[in-house]
Amino acid sequence: MTGRVAGKKALVTGAAQGLGAAAAWYLAREGARVLLSDLNEAGAAQIAAAINSELGPGTAAAIRHDVTSEADWIATIEYARVTLGGLSILVNNAGIVLTGSIEDLTLEQWRRGMAVNVDSVFLGTRHALPLMRENQPGSIVNLSSIAGLIASHNFANYNASKAAVWLLTKSIALHCAKQGWDIRCNSIHPAFIKTSILQDLVGDRDEATVMAKLARQVPLGRLGESADVAHAIVYLASDESRFMTGAELKLDGGISAM
Ligand SMILES: NC(=O)c1ccc[n+]([C@@H]2O[C@H](COP(=O)([O-])OP(=O)(O)OC[C@H]3O[C@@H](n4cnc5c(N)ncnc54)[C@H](O)[C@@H]3O)[C@@H](O)[C@H]2O)c1
User: Fold this and answer.
1) Do 184 and 139 touch, CB atoms closer than 8 A?
2) Which of 39, 200, 229 to mutate to test the pocket of ligand 1 (most atoms within 8 A of CB)?
3) Tens-digit pLDDT profile for the chain (258 aa)?
4) Is the beta carbon of 159 within 6 A of some atom in ligand 1?
């Protein structure tokens, strides 16, 4: 078996599209077996079938999974045990953006954003660790955001939830290290990657104009591609990053350097 994550067993949440789908593809191409989970079961199954058709049957599988549900997490980890034969990589990718200032958001919206973006990482890591301990070395990769490090007036929930993911990552990393487990945990902080999440920010406005405006805010002068994030996920998932834990990787075209 060849590849940068050859023989590893990966679960990617929110893998029906966008960054999760790209991560699943790149991990599979680098030799991992991958379980794709998503609320959108048909979408995840479609990506898994395409991966199997390119890379061979049994490379990928899919499951319906609401990352806010503890029962779903228990079932998904058990499915990973059965279909992958264990778990060595967890990519906590599923997430949503709720726009709105502190005065705009209702408590219900706030709780939804925290559930999808933060409870998911809490529940997923808690339930994955027992199986990951049996499959060391392991790596947990959490999708935070540059918005977890830099605030905006109309991102109250997204800023708070992604900042929680940032420090939760470090706490998990230190816990695993203290236990003496070779299980690392790092966060990724992208900005403006071309996926449907960015599309949601466009709303009724002209898409090309909004995208051009966003690109002008990036020192590199362009928006990011899903592949830019998938490459980083493969690096953090692989043993190439074996001395890296509790760290944050910023993929923002230079925004946070300003
Ligand atoms: N695209 C960007 O510019 C960007 C920037 C920074 C961070 N991120 C983060 O990257 C991650 C992926 O973003 P994306 O751009 O691919 O988004 P996306 O909207 O294209 O995909 C998100 C996926 O998550 C799934 N999902 C949503 N709620 C879920 C739930 N409760 N349970 C299971 N699955 C659920 C959706 O069905 C979808 O397939 C998110 O955590 C996002 O916050 C994205």
Assistant:
1) yes
2) 39
3) 789 999 999 999 999 999 999 999 999 999 999 999 999 999 999 999 999 999 999 999 999 999 999 999 999 999 999 999 999 999 999 999 999 999 999 999 999 999 999 999 999 999 999 999 999 999 999 999 999 999 999 999 999 999 999 999 999 999 999 999 999 999 999 999 999 988 878 888 999 999 999 999 999 999 999 999 999 999 999 999 999 999 999 999 999 999
4) no
Q: What is the CATH number of the domain that holds 17?
A: 3.40.50.720
Ligand 1, residue 20: give the atom nearest the CA.
Answer: 16
Catalytically active residues are 158
- The count of other CB atoms within 10 Å of the CB of residue 56 is 10
| Any ligand 1 atom below 6 A from CB of 39 | yes
57 located within any domain: yes
Q: Among 4, 70, 9, which Cα is nearest to 36's?
A: 9
Q: What angle do CA 78, 60, 125 make, to 5 degrees?
A: 40
Whether residue 114 is contained in a domain is answered as yes
Distance CA 185, CA 151 (A): 24
How many domains, in total, are found in the chain?
A: 1
Of 197, 198, 201, best ligand 1 pocket probe by most atoms within 8 Å of the beta carbon: 197
- Segments forming the whole domain that contains residue 91: 9-192+227-251
